[in-house]
Amino acid sequence: MPIIAHQAVGYALADAKMNIEAVRALSLRACRAVDAGHPATSELANYSKIFGSETAVRVITDLMRVVGVDSYDDVDPLNALLQDALVLPIFSGGNMGVRRRALHGLLQNPDYDPLSAGEA
């Protein structure tokens, strides 16, 4: 029986694809904001970095649960992908630091327009 015929596998793959597409859409919005010189560029770029890096770890570990312990073997590509993904949330000051410095500061700014990122 092909692995995709198992219902739980199909759910896991659909969830993985949905999350990847959400990351792509947010990243595309951030890139468009950069190109347009939109004031929400920094905000969208930070959201994209945080959401994308945390989603990568979550999606890969979810897929590794489907495959099982064999996915942690050095010959399985999921192991190498996990090793790469684990560094993303801590790269460039880490997601907690980005939240604290960039986004928290942005939200505290009295001139901050919470709707501006939605217009980018």
What does it look like?
The protein is built from 4 helices and no strands. It is an all-alpha fold and 120 residues long. It has helices spanning 7-36, 41-67, 77-87, 94-108. Helix 1 (7-36) packs antiparallel against helix 2 (41-67), helix 2 (41-67) runs antiparallel to helix 3 and helix 2 (41-67) runs antiparallel to helix 4 (94-108). Helix content is 69%, strand content 0%. The protein is elongated, with a radius of gyration of 17 Å.
Secondary structure: elements and pairs:
Elements: H1 7-36, H2 41-67, H3 77-87, H4 94-108
Distance between the termini: 46 Å
Q: Return residue spans where pLDDT drops below 50 for at least 5 consecutive residues.
A: none
Instruction: Give the fraction of residues assigned to helices.
Output: 55-70%
* SS class: mainly alpha
- Name the shape in a single word: elongated
What is the count of helical runs?
4
What is the radius of gyration?
17 Å
Main sheet: strands, sense, barrel = none
Global mean pLDDT? 91
Total beta-strand segments = 0
What's the order of the H and E elements? Answer: HHHH
Proportion in β-strands? under 5%
Keyword list:
4 helices, elongated, mainly alpha, 0% strand, 120 residues, 69% helix, single chain
Entry summary:
With 120 residues, this protein is an all-alpha fold. The protein has 4 helices and no strands. It has helices spanning 7-36, 41-67, 77-87, 94-108.
